[in-house]
């Protein structure tokens, strides 16, 4: 078995790992201006997608161009989320070279997809020499395990009969309100491990929730409005649950509305489906008609809205309305990738709006609602793989984390972008 890193190596975004030139694990894009895609366009026999976030699934429809029809394997929530994300990408970039697929390619997903639950092993065609299943390969047995990141997120175990490869995808070892943390530790010879928060120790989640709820209450009591930019998938629903648990009534805007309805169709992938039902019932979904957003911005309210990194979406309707008043607040609740408007606001207190960079006088606070394992979580997960080879990816400090693991007697390295490794 060999693996080639087409994206996500020593970076966060556009994850794509090609096994034996035949089996593709994830095929995402990196949110930037312009968006960045994996470094080359592979032609796999099959694809297994770990979860429904843009940086892992965002480019999958592009694999269905021409007469190419690789099977696409994923969980039911990931299948549904992939379509939501693809159509949003088409809405943003569909008429430009920035989008490598069309609505036709999205529709083709229905021809090739296969949905799987956790713990269900399934065969996947493939070739050990990179030539595909017609080139003498024996194929793989693949199993998905709950990764505790977002609904439907999975660790991917690939077994070719000689080598067992565990691709962690994104994962969290602690429980969130929306999903339970990963408990899965399947036997593996090689682990490709994410490292997004390898240099971070998360604050206790209960304390984060309390601080966020206090900030919202205080701001509203003082006469301000709170805008909480949030990823549509996972973070919007998590904040709705936290708000409901703290007797806060949010407005919810953007793609998170559709995602909330979607994930509720898959209660078996949620930690507490009834809690999410209550939170949805208590929230007020925004239609965006007739100046509604401008009125809400002046309404001393909590607004949970996309996009989480301020790269687009309804958040750009609210921020111009609240930015000049220091009584208002922006609560950043997710990782802000370098080069995004969210990182610019977080580090420099300014934001580009309507083509002009403007200062933001509203209070800006960051809250660690991460759905990724932190340093302690990564180490506790990898502790079961001390006899395995560890390949560190999906992080800003992959090389440093691999060095730390080697110092702790792991067989660890951090592959470079484009590197192909024999296992």
UniProtKB/TrEMBL annotation:
Keywords, alphabetical: Hydrolase
Recorded coiled-coil stretches: none
Molecular functions per Gene Ontology: hydrolase activity; RNA endonuclease activity
Domain Beta-Casp, chain residue ranges per copy: 236-345
Top-rank taxon, per record: Archaea
UniProt protein name: Putative mRNA 3-end processing factor
Signal peptide: none
Domain Metallo-beta-lactamase, chain residue ranges per copy: 13-224
